[in-house]
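We both want to read discrete structure tokens more fluently, so let's practise on a single case. Would you write everything just below, so we can both look at the same thing?
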Amino acid sequence: MYNQEMYGLGSKRSTIREIFEYAKKRAAEIGADKVFDFSIGNPSVPAPKEVNEAIVRIVNETPSVALHGYTSAQGDKAVRDAIAAKYTQRFGVQLSGDDLYMTCGAAASLTITFKALACEGDEFITFAPFFPEYGVFIKSSGAKLVVLPSDPNTMLPDFEALKKALNPRVKGVLINSPNNPSGVVYGVGTMKKLAALLQEKSAEYGAPIYLLSDEPYRELIYDKETIVPCPMAYYENSIVCYSYSKSLSLPGERVGYIAINPKAVDAKALYAAVCGAGRALGFVCAPALFQRVAAECDGLTADLNVYKRNRDLLYNGLTESGYTCIYPDGAFYLFVKALEEDAAAFCERAKKYELLLVNGSDFGAPGWVRVAYCVQTEQIERALPLFKALAKEYAK
């Protein structure tokens, strides 16, 4: 007999994937140009030219057996050294290649990290709104996910709620900045406050509370004054889970890394636990070719001007039409207050205009919807009158 829990996960797609498949069905029925799919965070901007140049050069210069063979389980040493050196240069945190573990994207980074840390009875805290798969990943590690509220006006953490929720069972606090689905960035002040609280409670409990930072959108920021602080610069017991899927527009190539702060308690043992978790989960090594591409292109981004233009167009258009929106400093999502209490009903009503939105309840934020603006700018331009017409229905 198969595992019923796994059957449940496999027999029903996530809401985002369901909408994505519905969009394809509607496109076949009425034409893709008449469907306005804002459901999925699939980068719409091509990878930087340096990516293809690196692929061609690496393929031409590297013997096939070496190029396509296994790397070390934790990733090619030269790759890890190169990425660590760039991290040190950018953020002023002393990392070596021995602090990095290459992964098959951010999902693998997170699942490996939870598996490495979780013991029976452990809890991990995150703040709503949050990426829905966190619940799947944490439950699979044997731990419990505790979801806390954020300030509804800013979508920044509610620190009073955090103080009440912290206890000796909490193994880590998981943050995602820039945030999916809100686009909010946890600034320096937020990071300092979070670090101070976790340091205080770790000392009180006599065990580290890890700060886990999920950072697939780290480079996707659009305003010069926006700073995405490096967690390792503020808190020693920190772990970064990174992916190149969004920054380099490579979601299908599955490459990222886990970075362990070398100042963390028992950092070497923690790194060994990460290696063990990767082994237990079946991750032998990340794709060899794209490890090398990542090392060469680390720090580059796709053309962010496209996303910035989309953000400004969508945010300004919706607010002018009467919608309440959280201003997104980064990522490529706009979090919008539904025009009725039931966001699911609002999303269904939006389908009348072929506007496909994601219910915020899936992100732990009832009454909100997520609009992914990683689409062609023309789609937003054509969709804005439809959003306006939808708003007028509610104004009657």
